[in-house]
Amino acid sequence: MTSKDHMRGHQAGETITGAQALIRALEMENVDVMFGLPGGCILPAYDPLIESPIRHILVRHEQGAGHMAEGYAHVTGRPGVAMVTSGPAATNMVTPLCDAYMDSIPMVAITGQVGTSAIGTDAFQECDTVGITRSITKHNDLVMSADDLPLAIRQAFHIATTGRPGPTLVDIPKDVLTNSMKWHWPTDDEVADSLPGYKPVSKGHPRMIKEAAQLILKAQQPILYVGGGVLKARAASALRELAELTGIPVVTTLMARGAFPDDHPLCLGMPGMHGTAAAVTAMQKSDLLIALGSRFDDRVTGRVNSFAPHAKIIHVDIDPAEQGKVRKPDVPIVGDCRLVIEEMIKAINDLLAEQKQVDITPWRSRVSGWQEQFPLTYEPSEEGGVLKPQYCLEQLRDAAPEGTILVSGVGQHQMWSSQYWKFNEPYTWVNSGGLGTMGFSVPAAIGAKVGRPDKTVWAVDGDGCFQMTAQELVTASLERIPVKIAILNNSYLGMVRQWQEMFYEERYSEVYLSQDTPNYVKWAEAMGCVGIRVDDQSEVASAIDKANSINDRPVVVDFRVDAGEKVFPMVAAGQSNDDLMLHPSQNSRREFLR
Amino acid sequence: MNTANPYGSTPTHHMLSVLVQNKPGVLARVASLFARRGYNIFSLAVAPTDDPEFSRISIVVDVESAPLEQIVKQLFKLIEVVRISELDPRRSVERELMVATVRVTPEQRGQVVELANIFEGKILSVGQDAIILSMDGSPEKLDDFSDLLRQYGIIESQRTGRVALPKLDRAAKN
């Protein structure tokens, strides 16, 4: 590390300000871009930023900075960095931090704080940032001396990116930024010594892996239950090798879409509340679930005590606390998914030298029967009829350039995106899974485009979501970040409307927004974007072509879609996955799900 | 907590000895983790170890054994937690300190002093109609002592919460 420090012309022992040390430390961590908004207490840090090669993207709301950092981290695998001031700026960062914590996104937030002597006095723009964010960060730290800054920054990046990734926060009082310090860049050993309680496990236990391999070869109805941990571990190709070696069908959770190609014959798509009938049913009937970096979330399991009742569980996760949190595993393996899957493949190959895998072709054909009988479906609109949101997604998907990144908000449009898109590459899907943060998509798409400027980035958003964070399109216009936003404008908080229709006897309470106010085209134009409105199915393809051809500014397409459309299949909250509600047109075939 | 003996060991009480980095906010982290995950702290004692870089937190938690494993795993995720051991009461030594102000008439004072002697307690302060006693020992012994004092009338009392260490191995090395 010292050599890199040296190469940048830094002298150990050189006297600089805390603010200079902070920016220098970020450079040492290879930060190329950060998202933020200055204010009182963080002001000193913004001064040396002028000379820094780090690109800073000035947001319009601090929440936007946080989600941009997440979007950047999602697609690059590198930690996203957000820097904001104290008090209200720090509290505006709470939602993105919690979002990143739930979805294990590596992110470092830097917040200003009132001067050390003012802490605790209810000073202007003071809040207990470390206290407020304690339970939604992997770790956080209030730095009380400029000399401690380099180590605090190194720790924050180290903790955010190792083990189970997550957000960290460094809170820095104003005088810590203005005081001078003697520059010193801590070595790896110094970082390790400063964190005696932090030793993430990466290699799985060989005996457990062997036990898992034996179970896999004996299973008659196995399923690979793949979660976001596979993407975090960069394990997509190892997973593919494991699936192809064993012929075991794969489900990819909402956080794992793209970890296994949707067009692969073994891919069953998404499981859970709005999963495919094949994925949900195959898990229910399975005798062995090989959970890889997945956490048995309630949206996947439905009612836990009736989830996959006959299945033995192999649970691979880097976080020991995930094992047994919801379902007790028969074979727990703590470790990094990529390393464990690679070892598992070796163990299986070793066993295959002496024994044969149980023939799972009957299981495979049963599963493909479900796929054939119960494809995702919707009732297409008649000519001149109201536009269907699923149709818009199919058209977007089919016209998307190779490797397009899809970002979504939260609600019906998110589920349709996950269902109807074809994710054939990892890191092409960005969404808010655990926290379910409405308003995620616009800023996350901007962050994703900054991280991967070579790729087309489409955000599919709802009209409700869009109104929460749309102002960041001003940021995108001025910073020349050409993202594309497709609003599936159904004039409702659509998912809430769906629940009120299905579970509250169509008593619609506070869910109607308005299809015309705001005027999305004018709003888009006012923010420096191109705005396109689409009312009829016949206009969809040309609008998408036009949007795809614009690369010098953001584009917003207002798709006026059917408000009555519902997401199917569906497992009602708290119900068993056995009671999956199919699309009404498939109900007559229900018996095939046995 | 309406049992006759609120301090006694019950099967749902588990003693965790948690070694942490001695840094500001660590206790808040531990306490907020318990609150956030819906676990109940029964008693808590914290102090630096002989190495001032570290503190030991002794926590008695009130759970069934299944979630205990979750508590330990979640606690261990805190970056500043260095080591956690669950102490089996049969294989550890536990101590607790109690101070109590007891109402006594001058006539009763002798009886209470005698009781304190039997229990190896100490007299810390004597007033006209009250006496302050201290006693340290196993939590069960403290329970017995306070049961006997209750007939005189405990005006107020304070217990420290348990501290514990594992028992030493009696078998000779190698």
Description:
The complex is a heterodimer of chains A (594) and B (174). Helix content of chain A is 38%, strand content 15%. With 594 residues, chain A is an alpha/beta fold. Chain A is globular and about 75 Å long. The mean pLDDT of chain A is 97. With 174 residues, chain B is of the alpha+beta class. Chain B has 4 helices and 9 strands, in the order E-H-E-E-H-E-E-H-E-E-H-E-E. The longest helix of chain B is centred in the middle third of the chain and has 13 residues, at 65-77. Chain B is elongated and about 55 Å long. Mean pLDDT of chain B is 88; it is low at 1-8.
Side by side, the strands of the main sheet of chain A go 3-2-4-5-7-6
CATH class of the largest domain in chain B: Alpha Beta
* Global morphology of chain A: globular
CATH topology of the largest domain in chain B: Alpha-Beta Plaits
Number of domains of chain B: 2
